[in-house]
Amino acid sequence: MTNSSFFKSGLAIALFSVLTLAACSQGGEVPAGHSSADRDAGHTSSSAGLPAGNVAAGEKLASVKGKATGQSCVDCHGAEGNAPIDPTYPKLAGQYHDYIAHSLQMYRDGDREHALMSSQAKDLNDQQIADLSAYFGSREKGQLRDLHGIH
Q1: Can you say how many angstroms the Cα of residue 60 is from the centroid of all Cα atoms in its chain?
Q2: C-alpha angle 56/57/61, rounded to 5°?
Q3: What crossing angle do the helices spanning 126-138 and 97-109 adopt, rounded to 10°?
Q4: Rounded to 5 degrees, what angle do the CA atoms 37, 39, 43 make?
Q5: Model's pTM, two decimal places?
Q6: Nearest to 82 by CA among 93, 73, 72
Q7: What confidence tens digit (pLDDT) does each residue in 52-97 have?
Q8: What ranges in 46-115 are assigned the alpha helix state H?
Q9: d(Cα 124, Cα 108) in Å, to the nearest integer?
């Protein structure tokens, strides 16, 4: 391969890479996986726009029975979110607060479906989501486990 051919080949690869990156990062696009409320507000991170969470308020809220299911968070996820009643239910204690918040937003907005969680989260407002996320995220994590493929 001559220097000229090598240069042209390298230039073609570089140009392809630049064009590919430019196509993937067009302005206004929001990464996949964000709730419709996040997308509608132009947010690109799961917890963007949420008020500051209050751990004490989240602790109280975690024991409040939901209207739709008659269950509280700790009824299913256990004390401090660390002892689920079913092996397919996740431990919430020690999870990243923004992951919990994002999940609750998606259940609330209908972007993520679960028989209990969708109805449980539908009446939560942003402050309640921030408080629950702050509470469960602040708990000692114990033994988090990967639930991938458990069903």
Answers
A1: 22
A2: 120
A3: 140
A4: 100
A5: 0.66
A6: 93
A7: 999 999 999 999 998 888 999 999 999 999 999 998 899 999 999 8
A8: 55-61, 73-77, 97-109
A9: 7
Q: CA–CA separation, 103 vs 112, rounded Å?
A: 8
Residues 6+ apart with CB under 8 A from 122: 68, 107, 108
Helix residue ranges, H only, the chain: 3-24, 36-40, 55-61, 73-77, 97-109, 117-121, 126-138
Report the number of secondary-structure helices (H) and strands (E) in the chain.
7, 0
In sequence order, the 6+-apart residues with CB closer than 8 A to the CB of 141 are 82, 91, 93, 94, 95
* Amino acid letter for position 10: G
Residues in the chain: 151
Q: For residues 116 and 5, what is the distance between their CA atoms, to the nearest angstrom?
A: 62
How far apart are alpha carbons 127 and 42 in whole angstroms? 19
Q: Tell me the pLDDT tens digit for each residue of 103-112.
A: 999 999 999 9
Query: And the tokens for 34?
Result: 């964000």
Give the separation between CA 38 and CA 150, rounded to whole angstroms. 29
Q: Which tokens hold the place of 35? A: 């709730």
